[in-house]
Amino acid sequence: MEAHKAARTSHAKWPERDELQKATKGRFALHSQSVQMVVAAFLANIETIHTLRQRHPQMKMKYPWRTKRFYPVKWPAQAVSKEHGRVVLPMGKDRPSLVLPIDLPENSGACSLVWNNGFELHVCVEIQQAKEAPGTVQATVDLGEIHLAAVTTSTGQALIVTGRGIRSLKHLRSKQLGKIAKKQSRCKKSSRRWKKLQRAKSKQCRRTERRIRDLRHKATRSVIDFCVEEHVGTLFIGNPHGVRDKNKGLHHNQRMSLWGAPCRRVWNSCTMQGRLRATHLQNNDLLSGETQRGQEHVNKAEAS
Questions:
Q1: Closest Cα partner for 286 from 237, 235, 238, 236?
Q2: Average pLDDT rounded to a whole number, residues 104-110
Q3: How is residue 97 annotated by DSSP?
Q4: Is 48 strand, coil or helix?
Q5: Are 86 and 69 in contact (CB under 8 A)?
Q6: Rounded distance, CA 117 to CA 213, Å?
Q7: CA-to-CA distance for 275 and 57, rounded, in angstroms?
Q8: CB burial readout 243-276, b (16+ within 10 A) else e
Q9: What is the CA radius of gyration of the chain?
Q10: Burial label, 74 (beta-carbon count in 10 A; 0-12, 13-18, 19+)
Q11: Does the global pTM surpass 0.85?
Q12: Reduced to 3 states, what is the DSSP secondary structure of residue 187?
């Protein structure tokens, strides 16, 4: 990252894959293929940001400019050793391997060690993708806060997936964090009691996030299963990007902040599961739709 940043600031030629791999060879206590995968991910991020800066300048995307404290460590499928009741992740020559007591499935592949307020092992599992769409019916999905997803098809069938469970979990998390913060305000920062309360706060956040992720996955799975049962071949999903940028007051902005990022995850989950079922997906921007409806309303008022 530092070499690439120096090349950008000095307007020199940007280093490519071979140059970055030579610069990182033997410098880190990691498996050689893990370092190569980090370089590949970095170059993919550079290419994505370059494309977004050209097509969507309003997003104001920045190239990587600071060193991250935590970064996922990846192992390709050929470097992962699966044994009975455990998985062995190599750390390079003359270094002890990382052994985890986890029983992985036979069709598992590459692994990633991710820090998410605690270490998580992400495993790639190959799933056979459907070759043909379930049918030719069209359907639309409207994402929301109280109703997580409202689905309607061109044949008149509909499905509403409630999001009150996720909403209640967020409400409970806010109340519990408020109680812990009140106790922390009476403590000296970095004291033993303050650190104990901080660990309790982190533990509560992780538990709530896991529950929300589980409910979100079940909700999106029910949406895709409904589309398969109704023989949906084309699925239109409302894109929530841009809705959070509209300033509508303190309470509305806070509600949009709590809803926007998880809603984006629901949208990504529906997209991923829909592609596995060979469903054609199209995205509609919710913000542009609201603007268009408002413009039609103004034109009708002027005409009258």
A1: 238
A2: 88
A3: P
A4: helix
A5: no
A6: 15
A7: 28
A8: bbeeeeeeeeeeebebbbebbeebbebbbebbee
A9: 24
A10: buried
A11: no
A12: coil
